[in-house]
């Protein structure tokens, strides 16, 4: 027999108070609740949450695994309840983090748990059926997992999306500010802007401590509140009131290519300033500039072209001379939708080129004509099929090249079962088959195995997301090269190329 509403409320208060004072005691009490309540869903849900949260705080792996077991049991019975999936994700991340052993092998050993957590967070974050505040929390937690894998560009995108849904989410604001200040320390383009935005986030978070306490435990709040002790200089955040529609589009979705994650400098005519600093080339230097520069220039050009095409399509800056048959299913045809699918496809093609560039630069084994982003970084052992980094990648990561962690984990998320898999599926659909967009998906469509149907709004979201993903990959591969050059600096001269304007000839 289940608890009455008052009994349940009293139990919840008791467990929370215990957690705030003595996490280990809260774990013991939660275990007792599960032992007594059996399979009562509400009691199990409450106790499992305490087991995970208090277990994480107390460093009790067994408690976290018991909480995970309970959440998985509940989720298996109610797979459409995305909040249960969110709880499973939290438990998976708690387990993964408790397994940390000061070894970068942790990333491979916990990869499946963390990839599953990211997928579950993304399901909640993108669901229109879920409360906006919970969606914001899912974006924040997803961002945290990306940040911990050195995927800073993607992490900042998700913190930003969290704040669009819940501007009072101080947790997202504090973490976003931390990333901005990290990048600002490089003193590159936009450093002052990033500091200004970081200050804005920290001030807003400091003004709403009660909201932060609603989102995290008392233990976590104390850690986050340490950021409030910083001095906050008076700086103005960027003003885009005089920006062009294209500039606003690029700034809103953070689609610029520069050593920055926030802030578009409108005073510059060329704001996509990300370049390679220099390449050590040894004896081959007499043959001319390293081919890597040409590869990176092409990557950058492809991305900027995809971004341009996407902007033109999304803002109807296209004249269509075609007329099309009405397929009676609210489908959209014409140059605009074709440009949208073309831009999305180009973004995913960029990922394969990123892999080819890394393959050549790191001198990985294999035919460079058969290199794909999803297969470049990992291999499985012959005996047990255990996933591991390929030897040169592993060696580079162990030397401190953390950008390869970012690239390899992005590849995992693009694969089947990853939270970005639909973007890859969309690319395949528009490349090898037919992708048809609709005002809204009709309830009845004549099925075809060679046509993939998408709602227009859904496809737009994935197009923007694909631009952000390809931008992130270009950032990571540039960072990988920079770190490699620093790690392997043996005093040889590096080849640096001047930057010049490219125009029509």
UniProtKB/TrEMBL annotation:
<dbReference type="Pfam" id="PF18733">
    <property type="entry name" value="HEPN_LA2681"/>
</dbReference>
<dbReference type="InterPro" id="IPR019734">
    <property type="entry name" value="TPR_rpt"/>
</dbReference>
<feature type="repeat" description="TPR">
    <location>
        <begin position="136"/>
        <end position="169"/>
    </location>
</feature>
<dbReference type="InterPro" id="IPR040826">
    <property type="entry name" value="HEPN_LA2681"/>
</dbReference>
<dbReference type="InterPro" id="IPR011990">
    <property type="entry name" value="TPR-like_helical_dom_sf"/>
</dbReference>
<feature type="domain" description="LA2681-like HEPN">
    <location>
        <begin position="286"/>
        <end position="482"/>
    </location>
</feature>
<keyword id="KW-0802">TPR repeat</keyword>
<protein>
    <recommendedName>
        <fullName>LA2681-like HEPN domain-containing protein</fullName>
    </recommendedName>
</protein>
